[in-house]
Design goal:
Blueprint (H helix, E strand, L loop, with lengths): L3 E2 L13 E2 L8 E4 L16 E5 L2 E6 L6 E4 L1 H4 L10 E4 L6 E19 L10 E7 L9 E6 L9 E7 L5 E7 L10 E10 L6 E4 L8 E2 L4 E5 L8 E2 L12 E6 L5 E3 L2 E4 L3 E5 L7 E9 L2 E10 L5 E2 L12 E6 L5 E4 L2 E2 L8 E2 L10 E9 L10 E5 L2 E3 L1 E6 L7 E6 L8 E9 L2 E2 L3 E5 L1
Parallel strand pairs: 15-23
Antiparallel strand pairs: 1-2, 3-13, 4-5, 5-8, 6-7, 7-13, 8-11, 8-12, 8-13, 9-10, 9-12, 14-16, 16-21, 17-20, 18-19, 18-22, 20-21, 22-23, 24-29, 25-26, 25-29, 27-28, 29-33, 30-31, 30-34, 32-33, 34-35, 34-36
Amino acid sequence: MCRRTRLLYTAPLLAALGLWTACPAGAQSVIFDFDTGVPALTTGRNIPLDQTSGGIVAHFSSPTGAVFSVQTDASTGWKMSQFSGHYLTANNIGGNVLDITFSQWVTGITLTFATADFQQVEIPSTIQATAYLDSTGTPAVGSASAHGSYASDTMPMGTLSFSSGGQLFNVVEIAIPYQPLAAAAFCIDNVTVATLASGAFSSASAASYASGALLAPASIASGFGESLASGTESAASQPPPLTLANTVVTVRDSGGVNRQAPLYYVGPTQINYVLPDGTAAGPVTLAVTNGGQLTAVGAASIASVAPGLFTANADGKGAPAAAAITVAPDQTQTVQAVARCGLAPGSCVTSPIDLGPSGFQVVLTLYGTGIRGRTALTAVTATVGGLDAQVQYAGAQSQFAGLDQVNVAVPRALAGRGEVDLALVVDGIAANTVRVNIK
């Protein structure tokens, strides 16, 4: 059963952040059998080719220029009892290398293979699969090898499996690593990958905790799960580091680019991080690794803005984490409290804001995140107590990564109204509504 809990995380200008945990989901398997994927493949189709199955795209190509084509037993005249319908076979003998690149991270792969040994040697040819993260030019995540066995099939057949033990990969290179006495090639079918456990790492704006996991580049997010890290650590400097408590959060965007997220806080059930600047709009996959081992994976949707306002009670509701600055006619300034908060959750009490006599102006300095990607200042609007309020500034502040600031002038017509709602809209997207007390 999912449980709700709370953890206090403090940093200058950022109120304590409440948290909730999400129920993790198990990993799944996705199969590429060259028959049921999209698009439908026809006999004789050569690589490079793509197949989509289970929302994952597999790209088949060869770094050596080897030619593999889609065939069936009927087209080849072979008998391959462990294959089903179409399969991929090498058109030439010797020197064949096949690369498979997946659009998402995976942690395991299994495939059915046959080696085209044209002379029945005592031990059929060995086939090997080597896994990489993003490129075969990087150090291998690992590899596995196997050889088939002779039976009633035309060629020796077998199953090749590799599991990374929780490490991420998305490229697999398949080859016969050395040539036997008789030249060999290989065929493959039923390529099955172990996908990541979606939903195990659930993210929301660290300010609003709005559901739906809509985030913006350079915004602060909170991710929740179970057993995310073996320890607890907070960032001690700016900009935040990419590793805390031996834990890393990697963001893979819709363009296939991987970026590590700066980390504000890491704990077993919560990670506060900054979505990397430059993350492309669209769906992203987030992977949490601790000591190089995968601990959780989640997904989010990226938009140019995803506005959220920090609140004093750290729950996305009630009084904002803000300062009320009174500007006198002579331009001297004083600061008024917006909320009086104790240490316990839910202990904040709004402090009345005095608008002062005629000629004075009160500007609320609000702190939020996911705002800086707006198209223009005119795209930021605010109402206080239902009245239009002038937005004097909206964008980044220089002290903390991912933290945004919005300056809103309080309409004088609200004097004496008491607690009223403050609503902020950025590029047509509403932030969480907060409440201020007007004297």
